[in-house]
Queue: 2 jobs
Job 1
Amino acid sequence: MNIIVDAFGGDNAPLEVIKGAVRAKGELDTDITLVGDEEKIKKCAEENNIDISSLRIRHAATVIEICEAPTEIIKGKSDCSMAVGMKMLADDEGDAFVSAGSTGALVVGGTFIVKRIKGVKRAALAPVLPTSTTPFMLLDAGANTDCRPEMLQQWAIMGSAYMKGIMGVEKPNVMLANIGAEETKGRDLEIETYKLLKETPINFGGNVEARDLPTGVADVCVADGYTGNMLLKLYEGMGKFISRELKGMLMTGLTSKIGALFLLKKFKAFKKRLDYSEYGGSPLLGTSKPVIKAHGSSDAKAFYNAIRQAYQFTLSGAIEEMTRVIGEVKTVK
Amino acid sequence: MNIIVDAFGGDNAPLEVIKGAVRAKGELDTDITLVGDEEKIKKCAEENNIDISSLRIRHAATVIEICEAPTEIIKGKSDCSMAVGMKMLADDEGDAFVSAGSTGALVVGGTFIVKRIKGVKRAALAPVLPTSTTPFMLLDAGANTDCRPEMLQQWAIMGSAYMKGIMGVEKPNVMLANIGAEETKGRDLEIETYKLLKETPINFGGNVEARDLPTGVADVCVADGYTGNMLLKLYEGMGKFISRELKGMLMTGLTSKIGALFLLKKFKAFKKRLDYSEYGGSPLLGTSKPVIKAHGSSDAKAFYNAIRQAYQFTLSGAIEEMTRVIGEVKTVK
């Protein structure tokens, strides 16, 4: 196996990427190829006394910036580290791709360079979020703003295969984000999607209201990318809000400081649970090979987690499962 | 002034409604009329030794249940407490209406019995939510699933007038819920709404991403009712999730119990801040007179808060302000 890693994606590139890649090479049974400016990678490793002799390097001259149009990855910036890495994946020079760079560019590259699974209409961003019990996959979390019921149906199939294959959930409970439990709730999109999901070979658990998501009732939650992005960001924002409030509580007043000593450890564990980057990155589901979007603020540990996730994704055979079920559903219709 | 209160709305009716109404009558300079089965109201007050001689009562034979179709309020259930109370409001027998009953029925009744402000396309549910700094109004939070830009524009005007008139925010920062900060982000609905809001006589602060809502950056957040309902319910769900987790932290382990003694008071204050029913109820904005939806689980204190909110809403002149600005905007177009 060879996992291709964009060395110039994210706020902490290339140093934290290199560190995470070296750790992954040491712990996982796979080769790792760093993609990016070779000279800069070597210089950064040298300056930080990191031995990168176990890693492969593929040179790429430029980097696509967050502020650039995502389509630049297939236009003016086709020599950027993300494009070169994805091209390698498409050309069978590697088995999976990890990047903390521009999400938009990753979606465009996943669609037009790596290419989609046969029959898949749209690729979806699929982060795994923490709850008070078991985590759930939310998709689409923002790759597609205007969606049709068939897209949500395919995402339901893909999310289910992922949660089973990579997260080990026996029979993932797939639910549809909606504003009420009844089949007739929501907009035309949800009403039509509900009908489709009832006839899809997955374990469909009906509608889920946003208030129930943090309890872990769903293993997979499908939504259009506009709604999914709202949910993802509010989830993230509420986590930060709470962390700040807890910190405030711990820091003010003498009595609290005494109490804080006892609770500090638990608070830290709780904060960590709210941090969804702990689960690795967000897979881009629907591409013909595993593509993982690491969080922009990833550190070495987060990069290691994302690479390990790509490793497990590759081993799981989940993409073959997605391909099979999506093919079946297409034939039936 | 006379505030009309549905005595049979919510999980704790009529006892908690009666208690809240008696307190409001004692503290606010207004009459209060309880609407509902007169015999039951009197019997409940007697059994609980509550003196209701200061309150007026208007008899209504039935109650509209949550499980009934909302349109029943203007059909088979036109003799229910909610319908009778709203008819009183429409007939100038009172100045504001409060109910903890079916939200759907309240929206239908507000639209077809109380009727809308001249020119208003749709009434919107508008809860006020807590943040780490100042609270914000979210609208529409679920009354309308399919929306047009003109609706969101009117809600922006109404939310701004409410936050200024009732919450005392000098120049409310009105923002549009969206998946990115740039003007070109979102679906056609958001892109068109953004253009309209730039030309509306309000303090428009651009797009707000869901992750920033808990910081209190917006005073008013407008969204279509589907998205707004998702945001409201996730806000609520995250609050409950966090409260449960905190409780769990406090209850496990000896060291934590010792720490807990010191922090308990602060935790309670924090939990209270997350509970949006503390702000009273959710106004239904767009009706020609104040209508307040109290939370279904309201207790006496929450009913008191909702009645006080109706009182302030009536005194504020916010509806006159909404009428004026919406009229202006209509003329310009």
Job 2
Amino acid sequence: MKRDEIKDLYANAKEYENKEVCIGGWVKSVRANKEFGFIDFTDGTCFKTLQIVFNKNLSNFEEVSKINTGSTIICSGKIVLTPLNKQPFEMVATNIDIFCATDSEYPLQKKRHSVEFLREIAYLRPRTNLFQAVFRVRSCAAMAIHMYFQENNYVYVNTPLITTTDCEGSDQMFKITTLNFNNLPKDKNGNVDMSKDLFGKQSFITGSGQLHGEAFALAFNKIYTFGPTFRTENSNTKTHANEFWMIEPEIAFCDLEQLMDIEEEMLKYIVKYVIDKCPYELEFLDNFVQKGLLEKLNKLLSSKFVRIDHSDVIDILKKADVKWEFEPQEGGDIAKEHEKYITEYFNGPVFIKNWPKDIKAYYMKLNDDDRTVAAVDLEVPGAGELMGGSQREENYDKIIKRCDEMGVDKNTIDWYLNLRKFGSCVHSGFGMGFERLVMYLTGVENIRDVIPFPRTPQNCDY
Amino acid sequence: MKRDEIKDLYANAKEYENKEVCIGGWVKSVRANKEFGFIDFTDGTCFKTLQIVFNKNLSNFEEVSKINTGSTIICSGKIVLTPLNKQPFEMVATNIDIFCATDSEYPLQKKRHSVEFLREIAYLRPRTNLFQAVFRVRSCAAMAIHMYFQENNYVYVNTPLITTTDCEGSDQMFKITTLNFNNLPKDKNGNVDMSKDLFGKQSFITGSGQLHGEAFALAFNKIYTFGPTFRTENSNTKTHANEFWMIEPEIAFCDLEQLMDIEEEMLKYIVKYVIDKCPYELEFLDNFVQKGLLEKLNKLLSSKFVRIDHSDVIDILKKADVKWEFEPQEGGDIAKEHEKYITEYFNGPVFIKNWPKDIKAYYMKLNDDDRTVAAVDLEVPGAGELMGGSQREENYDKIIKRCDEMGVDKNTIDWYLNLRKFGSCVHSGFGMGFERLVMYLTGVENIRDVIPFPRTPQNCDY
């Protein structure tokens, strides 16, 4: 039962001229009169659909004429080039087997559905044009990421999801257990005895693979992770999910300037790859989701990203003739409204670097001014912060001092701190939220619509 | 501070002849007399090391001569071709900066360490030859998998890790929570009130993305997942870990025979890719881990995998002149000893297909004999079961009947069962444990040694 694929028809239309093909797929819509009819048909292999022409010579002409959206059919027929039509070719059907006919119970009828409604049928929404485009871009962007890093000789490392190491704060991590909640073992003080759990202690699912990634960078020079991460944040915003994918490269013998070079090069590589591989999808998204999407992406390719110190950003914000919700402050954080202003001010992507040490993590390299750390966030127009990275503190004494100043528990990260004694080197890394990237690439504004089955507070269906 | 890379030296040695380079990396060993010395040097970019020659013209000749294994140095010097030596070139150092000198506290001294010892320093073991080889092969195999599927127009789908859907049995899934174990909210019956948890109900981390993958296959035709999965099994064997990575492709309009075609093609693609990309690593593994590894891999490429029914395998086992620990039985499972015998019997990979329905899952396609299901396991010499797959039951009434017969709770999978009403089609899929694959590719026999930071019962360090 070898089948032809619509993707291949579009790629090699000429070769299929007057050829017999057989394709299994699904009806998007049908219109017919008493003599003949047309089916808008997809097999899922391509964003573009195939038009099937059928006529009353079909033994099941009546049934086919009345077939419902979403029905499965197996069609045989001849490919005819139609250079004057909107579609470059169509299939003239000789046989149409109806494998599974849907009825009016089928939730996706031929009309526009709201994204809110579609979220409630997450298992069916990938069949709609919007999600066909989004999830194909997502897949393509993932491949671009692997290609960029592998072509540049990075080693892909699968850092552990289950962990007892506290990277980003254990209050933000999900606890995991095999114990029975209704019958928890207790120690002699009446507290739950986690030593009875599978790992013999409390374990978590992780919010970052960075610390483990650093250990591998000091062995393989350049590594990247690409996997799921978790946060327990109880916030219902357009940009937060409790499960999301992250890319975390880590590079030995690399300082902050070189890190920015890598971030810029990687982002351009991904954007170029997606533009090349997903022309139909981006055209659709440009038309129906974000006007100007393609222009935005093409512009990024030719732009040189601005690099500016955090303190200079604050100066610009202070001088701006804007009534801020959060007043910009020296030594303070950059709010969403500031991110937006600064990318519009420079009309392109902006690296904000050398952040006040008090609002950043203990592992970031302390600058000579003793006031800032060698951290950098990349802000992009329309999406805000896309990547966050830093040069890491490679000096053992200094990182111990920072841990103590910031009240970091050194017990679970002793091995990580030891990396500063055992072959330490200048090294840097960054994290990129994969969903943020997909939102940027597709113009989709809600993170729930770029994740196959999103997990947000009170929402863990499927 | 742009650095050259040893990887690049090996790839383009001629171009570097008499060129000045600067490389940051780590000392593997040093030997010196009063006049000159040699450093065996790695920068992590390549399995092969670089020999650095230095002499007493160096201002820090004394310190360099006494430098310890694992120390970080930044070396400048000229590349000299040495076609008569074991290495094709070496660096004549003009400057060596000692960035971080280790001392005798450094756990990896210049000697052979046991894998058991190395597991205890999982954050340092990637610096050893064995793990340099293993984790580079792992990275390379991951890339091969993405390339195979993307070249064949599969969509990469990130199925959720957090789930409330029961695919493989919730007793085998870790529970997750944000609640405080020592202060759990109770309902009026005194049971823990999971409605107070972040998702409003008990949620798990998943053991499979298959069910979600099927939903996407019915939209995109061909999809694959590649991500972490979890099992709570409390078993300490060489082949079990509580966290591992799986690849789960799912293909619409594909029956069991076609599925086997895909599995065979994919495995050969991966093996060929790794042979091409990791020659130094495989040579090392062939020499020091599994004699005959390369021969085994090359043989696989040219073999045609056997396809045989489960019942015929049982016949062969029964006729065998072997004293079994587990007597082979019609309708019974295939034990490890049987797997081993049957791959040796056929002297190559074997697909065992059409399994007794009672020992397989509810979602597998019931064959016309009403006794077997269209399931297939791939057994490979030396590694046992590498993949398990099946044609899926696409008929709504039949899958409901199977759920009822097998006592499967239909409540959490109603959406999955609905896929059989809404555009159902013949479809098939399989799962491959990524670590099993890496063990097969490297000859490593313990799963703990192919995972960067393995998680097994009582073992969740780092």
